[in-house]
Amino acid sequence: MRHDTARHTTMAAFVSGQGVGAPARRERCGEQVAQSRRVCARAGGWSRARIVRAGDSAESEEERVARELAEVYARIDASALNAVFMRTFARQMAAELGAPPSAEGYAAVVELARRLVAKLRTGEEISAASRRILDSLFPAWFPAAFKALFARPLPRFSLRMNALVTVAATQWLMGPSALEDDGLTVKVERCRFLEQTGCVSVCVNACKRPTQAFFEHSLGIHAHLEPDYNDFSCKFKFGERPPPEHLDDALRAPCLAICPNAATATATADTT
Predict the structure, then answer these.
(1) What are phi and psi of 237, to 5 degrees?
(2) 3-class secondary-structure state, position 95
(3) In whole angstroms, how large is the CA radius of gyration of the chain?
(4) CA distances (Å), origin 36, targets 66, 143, 225
(5) Where, if anywhere, are coiled coils annotated (predicted)?
(6) 156, 11 contact by CB (below 8 A)
(7) Can you say whether the dihedral through the CA atoms of 202, 207, 212, 217 is positive or negative?
(8) What is the DSSP letter of 187?
(9) Would the CA dihedral through 89, 29, 229, 248 be positive or negative?
């Protein structure tokens, strides 16, 4: 019964954009984004080199940035709705893998994502499993209903609604994000999921590919996810068709120096 309640809560938040119109929610999201940007400014930019180089002169600054980011994430994780999203997502990941995580909270999501990449042989298999996880978060009737009620008759509205819901409902996973002036692009300041998994294959095969496929095939809209592996930011460009995989730079990136799956990861398109 708890599983159904959590799934319905997740579904209701997606359809209604729960919290998007609430001033208090917008204020909290704005504070989180603003603090993330202040941390970024003090650190002199989100440089991957600052994170992976041992003995760098900015090491104490890195520690301060890490502490301040931890405070931002703690506030995000304290939200009851975010906790529902996190538990539901982790439960569906564990169901796909056939075993529960040993960790709790966000650490469980990171553990499960790494296990997914380590267990499956190719990027295509990882993407297919991740797509099943995304689909399992919604009732079977939802994709057809969304396309009939929104995507086909109201394409522009559907794109903007998905952009707004992405900002409101995914900060627990990716950290602070904001809608850009065009109303269709979501800018993730510094993707928590990418940084904490430390793996390009997780980003590409467990997030970018399946999410783009979910939007196109399940919801009937286009979205291009554009991660930046240098500063861990990401853009969700709603209404933009993703480029062919052989032309997508995100799929041809080498493993990060901090990647724990470097020996087994299959990050690029030509290894799938």
Answers:
(1) -105, 95
(2) helix
(3) 18
(4) 11, 34, 21
(5) none
(6) no
(7) positive
(8) E
(9) positive
